[in-house]
Design goal:
174 residues; alpha/beta; 7-stranded parallel sheet
Length: 174
C-alpha cells in the first residue's frame, strides 16, 4: 500500500470522541494502537506499539478473553526488552503515542492522525480516571520531533493539536 493514511489510537479519555470525529473525516488505511487502546479497540488493529512491552502478555490475554480479533504486528521501543514476538522500533523519545508516530513514519504513512493522544497535563486515561500528571515531561521530545512530523501528523485534540494542528479534509486530500 503506497502512502497509507494512519489513525493512531492513544489512551486518553478523549479517545472515543477523537476516534468518532476522525472517522467522519476519513477512513484510515492503517490503525495503529498504543498500550491499552490495543487491548480494548473492538475492531482490527494493524499495528500495536508500546514503550511498555512487559505488559504485552497481559494485554494480549485480555484482548483474547474479550473475544477481540488478534492484533497485527506488535512493536516495542528498541531500548526495552519484550517477552512476546514483537519488533524493536527506534524511538524519538517521549511517550508511547510518539512511538506510534515513529512507527507510522517508518511505515511510509503520508498522513497520520492522532486520536486520544492530546498529551494534556492533568488529563485522565480512558480506562483510569486517575489524573496523568506526567504529560508535560514528554513535551520536549514532541517539540524536538516537530520537523520530522511536519506536514504528515495532525491531532484531533489537546496540546498535540495545538502543536501540530488539527486534520482537515483539505489536508487529508492534499
Amino acid at each position: 500500500m503506497a502512502n497509507p493514511t494512519a489513525l493512531i489510537l492513544g489512551g486518553a479519555n478523549t479517545l472515543e470522541a477523537d476516534f468518532d470525529a476522525a472517522l467522519k473525516l476519513f477512513q484510515p488505511d492503517l490503525l495503529i494502537a498504543c498500550n491499552h487502546a490495543g487491548r480494548d479497540h473492538p475492531d482490527r488493529i494493524d499495528h500495536w506499539a508500546t514503550m511498555h512491552p512487559e505488559l504485552f502478555p497481559k494485554w494480549i490475554e485480555a484482548r483474547g478473553a474479550a473475544g477481540l480479533p488478534p492484533a497485527g504486528q506488535l512493536w516495542h521501543a528498541k531500548h526495552r526488552i519484550s517477552t512476546v514476538d514483537s519488533q524493536p522500533l527506534q524511538c524519538w523519545g517521549g511517550s508511547s503515542g510518539l512511538l506510534c508516530v515513529t512507527l507510522a513514519c517508518d511505515l511510509g504513512c503520508a498522513k497520520i492522525v492522532l486520536a486520544g493522544v492530546p498529551m494534556r497535563q492533568n488529563a485522565c486515561h480512558y480506562d483510569n480516571r486517575r489524573i496523568w500528571t506526567e504529560a508535560r515531561q514528554y513535551w520536549p521530545a514532541w517539540e524536538a520531533s516537530v520537523a520530522k512530523m511536519a506536514g504528515r501528523v495532525r491531532s484531533m485534540s489537546g496540546w498535540t493539536a495545538e502543536l501540530l494542528g488539527r486534520p482537515t479534509g483539505d489536508w487529508l486530500d492534499d
